[in-house]
Amino acid sequence: MRVLFVCLGNICRSPTAEAATLEALTDLGIAGQVRLDSAGTGDWHVGNRPDRRMLAAASEAGLRLDGAARQVTAGELADWDMIVAMDHRNLADLRSMASSDEVRARIVLFREFDPDAHDADVPDPYYSGSHGFAEVVRICRAAAAGLADEIAARFDAEPGA
To answer: Is pTM beyond 0.85 here?
Structure first.
């Protein structure tokens, strides 16, 4: 299974969602069966590491953020089994990029996997204080747990699993 996380610039929310999901998949013992990546809809931060404030909040919570920001391309969307948007803006941008209804159907909101979420969007912490980054880590962990359970259920539903 291949899962792509997408936010605006790929320096805050999507790398955190990727790391939190890796953690949750590892806890379930299926991390090696899932390919995870993240990207942004914009190109402002391409090549940059995650935001230093996000790195600090993630590290404090025991998450490790790796990689460099990249921009998602329309051509790659069909390569992913699930494309996970951080907010409605990202969702709309991704759906407009999708080449078919089949690909559009694979694009979902991350917080759909958190039954306790009171908002469908992961808030962008870029212009907030440090509390905003810590809150994104908490939100990502909650949604990642539900997403990991969904992925595990899909594996269980596969013939021969």
So the answer is: yes
